[in-house]
């Protein structure tokens, strides 16, 4: 109860500050200690051969849109609700899918919820619940159509690739660029 009270106090204090551009709220971890939360993190160090990445060459300048709330732009959302990865180190699949979902919605007008479990199970360059890279996910989507979450449910554990057994969307990617840290242009 004391941990919940500390979390609640932090939430109240944060939300009272008018300068903050987001609100905090309670979730299933509101009464967890730092040690309990840390114990569920499954990120492991990537193998040495995966550390030697270089930024892609900068091609054309990309201008960031400022001041647009993509959750409600022109009375339409281009961003899905927050998802829960559970105790699976699959954050890489969630962030890759979130970017692809939003990009597709902005370009084509339809917001889909893509299957993170497809990447966890089928992207052979990443390590499923033991970590992965968004770049590997995008490379996977260069060769495979994305699947809807409703057709390939998230289980928060490594499983057998079911790509050939489920219906796919028309969504693929043609590429990606790496954006340098702290660069909004």
- From the helix content, strand content and strand pairing, which structural class follows? mainly alpha
Which whole number gives the mean pLDDT? 84
Helix-strand pattern, N to C?
Answer: HHHHH
CATH architecture of the largest domain: Alpha-Beta Complex
Which class of the largest domain in CATH terms? Alpha Beta
Q: Report on the biggest sheet.
A: none
Task: Please state roughly what percent of the residues sit in beta strands, choosing from under 5%, 5-15%, 15-25%, 25-35%, 35-45% or over 45%.
Answer: under 5%
Q: What is the tally of beta strands?
A: 0
What distance separates the N and C termini?
A: 45 Å
At CATH level 3, the topology of the largest domain is Cathepsin B, Chain A
List keywords for this structure.
single chain, 185 residues, mainly alpha, Cathepsin B, Chain A, 2 domains, globular
Descriptive overview:
The protein is mostly helical. The chain folds into two domains: 1-40, no CATH class; 43-185, Cysteine proteinases (Cathepsin B, Chain A), CATH 3.90.70. 31% of the residues lie in helices and 0% in strands. It is built from five helices and no strands. The relative contact order is 0.13. Mean pLDDT is 84; it is low at 49-63.
Short description:
With 185 residues, the protein is mostly helical. 31% of the residues lie in helices and 0% in strands.
What is the element layout, followed by pairings?
Layout: H1 2-16, H2 34-40, H3 91-108, H4 116-122, H5 134-143
Helix pairs in contact: 3-5
């Amino acid at each position: 109860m004391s941990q919940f009270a500390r979390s609640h106090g932090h939430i109240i204090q944060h939300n009272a500050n008018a300068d903050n551009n987001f609100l905090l709220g309670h979730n299933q971890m509101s009464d967890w200690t730092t040690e309990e939360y840390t114990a569920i993190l499954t990120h492991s160090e990537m193998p040495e051969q995966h550390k030697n990445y270089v930024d892609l060459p900068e091609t054309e300048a990309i201008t960031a849109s400022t001041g647009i709330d993509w959750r409600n732009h022109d009375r339409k959302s281009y961003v899905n609700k927050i998802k829960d990865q559970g105790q699976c180190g699959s954050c890489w699949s969630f962030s890759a899918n979130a970017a692809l979902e939003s990009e597709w919605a902005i370009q084509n007008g339809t917001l889909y919820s893509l299957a993170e479990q497809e990447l966890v199970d089928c992207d052979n360059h990443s390590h499923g619940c033991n970590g992965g890279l968004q770049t590997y996910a995008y490379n996977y989507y260069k060769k495979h159509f994305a699947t809807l979450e409703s057709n390939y449910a998230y289980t928060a554990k490594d499983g057998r690739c079911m790509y050939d057994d489920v219906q796919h969307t028309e969504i693929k990617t043609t590429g990606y660029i790496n954006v340098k840290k702290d660069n909004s242009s």
